[in-house]
Structures are given as C-alpha cells and as structure tokens.
Amino acid sequence: MIETIDCPFASEIKENIISWLTNQQFNSVTGEAYKTNEYTEIHIQEIKRLFDWIESHLSEISDKFAYYTNSLYNSDIRSSTKKFKIDSYWFLNYPLNSWIRPHNHFPHALSFTYYISAPQNSAPLILDHKEYFVKEGQLLVFPSYLMHWVPPAKVEGRTLISGDIVYLSRF
Predict the structure, then answer these.
(1) Percent of the chain with pLDDT over 70
(2) Alpha carbons 104 and 8: distance in angstroms, whole number
(3) Is pLDDT of 98 > 70?
C-alpha cells in the first residue's frame, strides 16, 4: 500500500533545497547513510511549497488507503475531519554502499519520502518486501506501520526528505 505522485514543480525547488542542505549537519546512521536532525519547523520557502503540496494530497491518499478497510474513517460523519499534517521531517543522503536497516514509523499515521536527487541506478526503497525504484521529484506516501529499508547504494547522490504525518481527526 503506497501512493506515488510526481511533483509538478520539482525542478523549481531543487536547487534552493540543495543549497540550504549544504549548511545542515548530517550524522552517520546505521548503514552509513547520512541523516540530518529531525525538524518540526519549515526553514525555507521551497520546503513550505513542497509541504503545502504534499498536505493537499493527504486526504485523497488516505481515502484510497482506507477504501476497503470498513473503517470509521470512511463514514459520512468523518468527511469533514480528514485533516493531516506533516509532524516532523529530516533529510537523508546515501554515499556509495550505504543503506538503511528495516524499520517503521509507528505510531504515526502516514510517512513519506520525497526524492530531491535520485541518480540512475539508485537503490530502491523496499516497502513491505516490494521494491520501489525511485526517481527525482517523486513523492511516496505509505502507512507508517509498514516495514521498509534501503539496500546498499550502487551509486552516490540519492538525497531525500523523509517525514511523518499525523491524522488530526477533529482538531
């Protein structure tokens, strides 16, 4: 269960996001990928534009995920409470041979990855044992409880924003 959308303005925001990233501190994590700290505030206009676009799709994406679940989320009384918000986010960069171990983002509702840079032959995202070959400017949204990981990178330069999304229900 994953939703993939291409960002229509990816090329317009890429350069300024990468420029901002050059001033951020990255730390090595298990698998030798590099990760920033988690952020809860938006620091540049390009990230705000991206997050506004992502959040504008979250209700529709969640409707697709919930369609066959028989969940109360699908009931008419919930139609006005389908609100989602990006709770936190971070950046990851993958040098050659780096990887990320299997993990999930429970208890958040949804998680996302947005690919700022994805050179040809970039390592796929493995989500629930299925490979997703990513491309630059692509957004992937999935339920946070799903296990996912990244196998060793065969090329350098895979850079992304990853984050967690909360369901606000009645707030």
Answers:
(1) 94
(2) 28
(3) yes
